[in-house]
Every structure is written in structure tokens, then in C-alpha cells.
Amino acid sequence: MKNTVVTFREAKQKGEKLTMLTAYDYSTAKLIDEAGVNSILVGDSLGNVILGYEDTISVTMEDMIHHGAAVSRGAKNALVVIDMPFMSYQTSVYDAVVNAGRLMKEGRAGAVKLEGGAEVCPQIQAITAAGIPVVAHLGLTPQSINAFGGFKVQGKSEEAARKLIEDAKAVEEAGAFAVVLECVPAKLAELVTKEVQIPTIGIGAGNVCDGQVLVYQDMLGMFSDFTPKFVKRFANVGEVMKAAFENYCKEVQTGEFPAKEHEYAIADDVIEKLY
Ligand code: KIV
Q: How many domains, in total, are found in the chain?
């Protein structure tokens, strides 16, 4: 069944956990979709895991549209959420609406996600008023990595924890239909989850959140540049891939591959005429 913002709302009301994974291409999106995951996030984490950047700062609207459209073609039932990249919405409410519109029209997103709390509420309000569903993102917001001074757990002091709760209420009030909580203490995430009516989607925020999200390369062991504490490896696909690549090299070098069954035939009399 097609997942929509209504699925998210009803899941919270019924106490059913929501599942979200990232994807950046058609084939992976199709597999995730077929596995029954509620939502696919085309995260700007593609800067790290697909494009090999150190952070998400350099990711462009064109990157997000290109990968978002591929994912949308592969996702039949999952709700596709596309991240708004750095500086596509911070600059003005006008830019935010225009760029969110592009992610819908060209990337075929079902919703967009943007980072920040009270400071981006005018943008959330305007985007939702344009008929585009918005997921908010609080806690460790990677686009602000330079302001945070590194990847650190957020909301640990009383002041920071209060601000996080207020921000969650503010983004809900502004119209966000869900909020991602990244790298925040589990007990704080639990409090936020109780304080807002919209679903909280945790990543490094404990298991009381209304749903969970992970970067698929992390959960499959395909990305080794850094692995946050909150990642659980559900399979070692990276090792399987590497072994297969090594095997391929060996078989090509020894002539074992391609074998007879991988060849195309031609009639002998045709070949004989060519000699
Ligand atoms: O870009 C991304 O993948 C994200 C998740 C980590 C939530 O924003």
C-alpha cells in the first residue's frame, strides 16, 4: 500500500513504528521498496556515501534532483522524501519554496526535508502552504557541522535540551508532518516524542522514537570512512562485494570467466566464410 503523510499520522496514533532508509539510486530504491520500508530518504548524505565529500555542504540542487528522480522511479509504495541541500532554503522563504517545488516537479518527491528549528519555521510554513509536505530535522544537523565544530551529540545541557523541545514544537506548529531527531540523548528524544503529535524519526536517538532511519551503506557495512556509534550493521554487504570483485579479477585473469554459457553462438558456415 502506498505510504503517505496520512500513513505517518496514523502510525503515531496507533503506536506503530515507522521505517525509513536512505537510497540514492533506482536499484537500491526498488529493493528497499519491495522490503516494505515506509519511506525512502534521498539524504544529502549522498555527499558522503555517493560523492565522497567530507561533509554535505557541497551537495547541490542538481545532485538531489538527479538522485531523487532515480529513487522515485524505483519506489512504488515508499514515501520518497528528498533532502533540501545546504543554501537551498536558508537564504530566503522564496528560495525555499522554489527549490522545494523543483524537488517535487523534477525529483518527483512526495515530501522534502530541511534542517533547523524555529529559524526555518517561515520556510516550513511557506513550503507546506504550497502543498509540499515537510519533514523537519533537529539535533545534529550535518549542514551546520562547521557551527557545531564536529559531529557531536546534541541537547545534552538543560538549555540545549529545552531549545530542542521548543524547536520540535515550533516545526510542528509550522506544519512539518514528521521530525528527524539525530544524535540526541534517548531520554530527551522520548520527551520530544511525547510532547509533539507528529512522528519523531530517530537516528542515534534511542528506540522510543516513533520511527527509525539509517543510511543504507552504514547498515549494510558498505561505508568505512566513519561509523557512528548509533549504527547497527544488519549485514556485511561490503565484504561480500569486495570478495565478489576479487573473484571476478581472478576469473578474468585465469580465463575462467566468461565461460561457454556466457557466450553468444553463430552458425559455423557463417564463420567459415569469414576465414
Ligand atoms: O542525509 C541524510 O541521510 C539524513 C539522515 C542521516 C537522517 O539526513
A: 2
